[in-house]
Amino acid sequence: MTALPNCPQCNSEYTYEDRDLFVCPECAHEWMENEVEENDDESTIKDAHGQVLEDGDTVNVIKDLKIKGSSSVVKQGTKVKGIRLIHDAVDGHNIDCKIDGIGAMKLKSEFVKKA
């Protein structure tokens, strides 16, 4: 049995073949085997739903996030405006932002969705 490729949109490993197409059951993306996305390089940062993020975008937090070293929490649904992307993030926190009422902090792109 050959290994099937991960979904190019959401990177899900649960893809399956349907005739000559690959299908992702998580995001419903379909693509052909010989179809290669040219703009999908390692330097792009994507949100939790696979949308490409850019500097200055507005995002929403998709789950409550505890703030390290504090009893505060960033609540689900919090809107964050004017993000800055960090492409060489070592610890996985690849979004630099300022949240109203909390201040400057870094977020992981897997916990936000593009607004």
UniProtKB/TrEMBL annotation:
SUPFAM superfamilies: Prokaryotic SH3-related domain (SSF82057), Zinc beta-ribbon (SSF57783). Residues 45-115 form the Protein YjdM C-terminal domain. Residues 4-31 form the Protein YjdM N-terminal domain. It comes from the Bacteria. Belongs to the YjdM family. This is Alkylphosphonate utilization protein. It comes from Cerasibacillus quisquiliarum. The gene is phnA.
